[in-house]
Amino acid sequence: MLHNRFGRLAATALAGTMLMGAAACGGSEEPTTTASPGDAATSAAPGGTGPKVGLAYDIGGRGDQSFNDAAAAGLDKAKAELGLAEAKELEAGNGETDAAKEERLRLLAQGGYNPIIAVGFAYSGPLKKVATEFPEVKFAIVDDEAATGPNISNLVFAEHEGSFLVGVAAALKSEKNHVGFVGGVEVPLIKKFEAGFAAGAKAVKSDIKVDVKYLTQPPDFAGFADPAKGKTAAEGMFDAGADVVYHAAGGSGGGVFEAAKAANGKAIGVDSDQAKTAAADLQGVIMTSMLKKVDVAVFDFLKNAAAGAPKAGTTVYDLKAGGVDYSTTGGQVDDIKAKIDEYKQKVISGEITVPKEVG
């Protein structure tokens, strides 16, 4: 379930004091969660000799069973394998300003955390500003290429290619020639998921119907953390005749899964293998998930940073590089796996070019 731990940032001095107090826990204690005004903060102190890592989550934070949890998995692997001295995790609040995001990143930098990872494109402007204030700190941002600088690594993905594969799966499994897509917020990044999904479905069945619904419009990013809206959107699609619905809506995807279960339909997860991470009573409706390997990107960056050689600029994790894929947990796509893999190889070889924009 989602953990709704949002609020507003406190004044800089108070927040800075609380951050430093939490960071001082140290030792070999287990990770603990401490409440601070506006930020749910998890302080993990493995006690190694490696770097002190800061990670700022997008809306939903650790526990969203999707995008943020994928980033958390990369951090957890780094804790286990890289001997981090400490890791500090901070979460974003719903509806917060760029100034709040700036302050979160600034507090991490002031607290001696280096490198620092911002999870999500919403940090683009704030990270660009803070990175210039702390040129000695190495920053990375997931899903954004606009924030550039000599100390910024941009970790981006070919979401359209992974979405193409689950679009193929949806069309092959649909008995009604009717599928749906639920996007969290209508921004260019999420439109890439839509474009790839629709292209994949229509590559299999040119006349298939693809319903599309976005939960919110920017600057309202609550669509990534509103299961009730996700459920309502998916219910409308199932009621209209769709039998498979794909979501790219973060924590709101839990509502899509609930709707699929109630309608005896099928759902497609995103980012993480959600047949493993969703609530136990909903896992059976998830026929596959589009895997966006944020965990791999986060770990790679931290590994390079620990070695003193983080790569500034853009690194693209596409299908050919194994940065996106589809899951097979539960065996529901075993009967069509060979067909999906045919399309996969065509994308990798360049025979098929998957569109990034809705045409």
UniProtKB/TrEMBL annotation:
Residues 31-46 have a biased composition (Low complexity). This is BMP family ABC transporter substrate-binding protein. The keyword Lipoprotein applies. It comes from Planobispora longispora. The lineage of its organism: Bacteria, Bacillati, Actinomycetota, Actinomycetes, Streptosporangiales. It comes from the Bacteria. Residues 58-356 form the ABC transporter substrate-binding protein PnrA-like domain. Keywords: Cell membrane, Lipoprotein, Membrane, Signal. Residues 1-24 form the signal peptide. Its main location: membrane. It is found in: Cell membrane. Residues 25-47 are annotated as: Disordered. CDD domains: PBP1_PrnA-like. One of its GO terms (cellular component) is plasma membrane. Pfam families: Bmp.
